[in-house]
Amino acid sequence: MVRPQAVMATGQVLFHRFYCKKSFARFNVKRVAASCVWLASKLEESPRKARQVLIVFHRMECRRENLPVEHLDTSSKKYVDLKADLIRTERHLLKEMGFICHVEHPHKFISNYLATLETPQELRQEAWNLANDSLRTTLCVRFKSEVVACGVVYAAARRFQVPLPENPPWWKAFDADKSGIDEVCRVLAHLYSLPKAQYVPVCKEGGSFATSYRSWDSPHQSIPKDGSLAGQSANEDPSTAKGSSSLLNQEAGKDELIKAALDKLKESKNSDDESKNAINGGESREEPDSKLTSDNKTETSGERIKERERDRERERDREKERTRSRDHERGRESDRERGREDTERDRDKVKERGHRSRDKGKDSDRGYHSSSYSSREKDRRKHHSYA
């Protein structure tokens, strides 16, 4: 697969993966498409600058909207906003996919499968075209690339009426199942039965790629008042007067029922208020006693809180003393260890000195014996002269 086609396929797969998790109403499709192409160019080792991607998408948008193609000035505020939005959307893409952007396309399997099955060249081109069209659907996120490749090969073989081995089934050699192949063929057939695709703006942001300002939803329409309704009814035709009068009568009956229900509710509320007042009158007599008991309770609770705080302070002091004693003991232990190490070092030094003195004595004895031996040999040579 050549690099531009690989970038196209990878961008479409990233697009489908992103919208499997996010809503079309939240993220603008055109801006996400531009970010997918930009990210795919990096993944397929053919990177392009953000300026190039924005200029191409700006021209496509102008042609789609039948607008004059204007040059996108890189120093304008529009370009700066579009570039910032492109980078921000790419960051959203990477975050939603967990920075796992590896994509495996069915195209690389198609060539191997058809070479193994020894099919004609026309069938290979048809299978390649079907693989490109499959990226317009969600097959790339529903099935593995091997299954999509087998489904594409099967659909192309049926179109050209090329028989494939059934015994044993050919798809088992390529790690696929019949149900997945049938689903791929069904989705492709449904795709070709659809009319030409049209863009429907569903995002809350601006529909045009060239604009980067957010257009908020329009507020809800206010409910018309009675005056407007009266004006409308005055302008109505006499033929509709009967229908409107019947509707008004029905509404009047409903209003009477609602008023009766409201009167009953008011009466029940009044009775409840009277009973509450009676209860409150009996309770008001008991208020002084309750106040005294509440004061006593608050005093006792305050004393308890103070006692708890004192106990906590005592515990803290005890913990401090314990830590101090532990530190003191640790210091003593460290001093003892240092003393032991010093004594061991002194002993080792004394031993080394003893060994050195012994070695020196042995060396001196050896030198004495060797010197005496040499003097004897000289004396012998002096007394015994050779003719």
UniProtKB/TrEMBL annotation:
Compositional bias per record (Basic and acidic residues), positions renumbered to this chain: 264-276, 283-351
GO molecular function annotation: cyclin-dependent protein serine/threonine kinase regulator activity
Keywords carried by this UniProt record: Cell cycle, Cell division, Cyclin
Stretch list, region Disordered: 215-250, 264-387
Database matches in SUPFAM superfamilies: Cyclin-like
Boundaries of every Cyclin-like domain copy: 1-95, 108-190
InterPro entries given in the database record: Cyclin-like_dom (IPR013763), Cyclin-like_sf (IPR036915), Cyclin/Ssn8 (IPR043198), Cyclin_N (IPR006671)
A Pfam family annotated for this UniProt entry: CycT2-like_C
CDD domains cross-referenced by the UniProt entry: CYCLIN_AcCycL_rpt2
GO BP field: cell division; regulation of transcription by RNA polymerase II
Biased composition (Polar residues): 230-249
Residues spanning the signal sequence: none
Domain of life: Eukaryota
KW Cell division (keyword) present: yes
Family indicated by similarity: Belongs to the cyclin family.
Name of the molecule in the record: Cyclin-L1-1
UniProt source species: Sesamum angustifolium
